[in-house]
Amino acid sequence: METLSPLLPREKMLRDGVTSLTDEELLALFLRTGTRGKDVFTLSKDLLQHFGSLYGLLTAELEAFRQVEGIGIATFAQLRGIAELSRRYYCSGVQEVNPLENPDVARDFVHSQLAEEEREIFMVIFLDNQNRVLKHCRLFSGTLSHVEVHPREIVREAIKVNAAGVILAHNHPSGRAEPSKADKDVTERIVKCCKFMDIRVIDHLVIGRGEYVSFAERGWI
Predict the structure, then answer these.
(1) CATH code at position 189
(2) CA dist 55 → 11, 76, 78, 83, 87 (Å)
(3) Which intervals hold domain MPN (predicted)?
C-alpha cells in the first residue's frame, strides 16, 4: 500500500485549520527555512526542546539565542517580532469587543501584557456604561513578589475617564497564579472604595505563566 507523505504546515492549515498545527509545525510555518544541515522541522523541534516551550522561545533574550548553533540575529528578530505582533493583536482586540461578553479576550489581553514581566505589575481596564473599553493602563509596579496598590488612585483615574466599571489585573512573576491573602485583601479594599463612587469592579485577574485565576469565576466578586 502506498504511504501518503505528511502534509506541509501550510497545506495542513488550509485543510484542517490553524489550530490543527502542532507547536513544531506552527513554528516551522513562520521560520520557513532551516539552517545548514538542518531542515526547518528539525530546527523547530530543536528550538522548542532547547527553550522548553513556545513561551520560553518567544521570550528568550538574544544572549540565549547565541548559545544555539546556527541561530543568528535574524531568527531572534523574527521570533521577537512574532511575539510583539501577538501582543498588539490582543491589545487591538480588547478595544473592539465587549470584555464582559468575550471574557477570553480580556484574559488573553492582560496575559499578553503581564506574563513576561519580571516584577509585579498592577493594571486596570476602564469601561464605560456600555462595557466598552475606555482605556487600560499600568497604574502600579513593584518587586518580584509584591506591588503596592492604592485604591484611591484607581478611583481617581476612573473618575477622570468617566468609567462605570473596571477590570483589575496583576501578575505573579513566580508563575503561579493562585491569589495570596494580600491579593484578596487589596481587592476587597478596591471594591469598597469603588462602590462608594458607584464604580463596579467586574473582575480581578491574576496572571501566571500559562495560567490565571479570575476572582469573578471563583465567586469572590
Answers:
(1) 3.40.140.10
(2) 25, 14, 15, 9, 13
(3) 99-221
- Structurally, the chain folds into a number of domains equal to 2
- As beta bridge partners, residue 204 has 168
Residues 13 and 78 occupy one common structural domain: yes
Residues 184 and 1: their CA atoms lie apart, in Å, by 63
pLDDT digits over 128-183, tens only? 998 888 999 999 999 988 999 999 999 999 999 999 999 999 999 999 999 999 99
Distance CA 86, CA 79 (A): 11
Helix then strand then coil, % of the chain, to nearest 5:
50, 15, 35
Q: What are phi and psi of 217, to 5 degrees?
A: -65, -30
Gap between the Cα atoms of 216 and 219, Å rounded? 5
Residue type, 72: G
pTM to 2 decimal places: 0.66
What is the grid cell recorded at 101? 461578553
User: Is there a domain that residue 32 lies in?
Assistant: yes
Give the residue carrying C-alpha cell 522561545: 57
| Run of H or E including 184 | helix 181-196
